[in-house]
Hints:
By secondary structure, the protein is an alpha/beta fold. The protein has a single domain, classed as Alpha/Beta hydrolase fold, catalytic domain (Rossmann fold, 3-Layer(aba) Sandwich), CATH 3.40.50. It contains 7 helices and 7 strands; from the N terminus they run βββαβαβαααββαα. It has a 7-stranded mixed beta sheet with strand order 1-3-2-4-5-6-7, sandwiched between helices. The chain is globular, with a radius of gyration of 18 Å. The N and C termini lie far apart (49 Å).
Amino acid sequence: MSTLGTAHATPLVRTRRVEDPEFRLLLLHHAGGAHTAFRGWGRRFPEGWDVYSVEAPGRGRLLGEPFATAMAPWVDRLAGAVAPLADVPLGVFGHSMGAAVGYELARTLAESGTARPAWLGVSGHPEPGAPVDEDVHRLSSAELRARVGGLSGVPDEVLADAELWALFEPRLRADLALVRAWRAGGPPAPQPVPLTVFCGGSDPVAGPARVRGWSALAPRFQGVRTFTGGHFYLRAERDAVIRAITEEVARAVTGSAPPSPAPTTPRTFR
């Protein structure tokens, strides 16, 4: 039975099924994106990993639902969906908007006693509490189109087609408003979960100089991993990012990383 547009549809999409997993990983997408941002990722993780992508309201199987307008209700819903999966160690990785949602999800799960995630990875998001330069979600349609086009985060066919852009724009604005409200609230409560930061070396939104402050929010801060590219560096660097996630999870769970090939991307640790 289809769950499209129903109030009870799960926001979790299982992208790699493992019946008796040793680890579970949640992947959270960027503003304007969908669970398909992580298409093809699941099967590239270790064989014992069960992998899920998160689908935000207003797209995919949740297409008939209104966009999320406040962080807390959205995170509470996600926490409820994730709770049954907490029978094995759990990791959370979020990019851009997904980093903000993932941060709150990991903290909510840990503080509520539902589950203490073994690891959290935040990618492509400035340190919480960094000055908010402007209300990007309030830009004119043309300005917003130019802004996101410069980040290479929207398919060219969407940017080039007025009708496709008109369908995509409300979703993007809603997601940007959600993140803007979260950032405007100031630094969130400290994160009790081991935390690693990921960023693109030339990202104008959340490059190396704009992510350093994450370390102050996590007593178990595992460092910054920097990759070649801009805000959407993880598209070209997918396999390197997946290797890095695997290594960071191992560090969090066992205190050491497994052997890996010589790094092909810069890596920086605090």
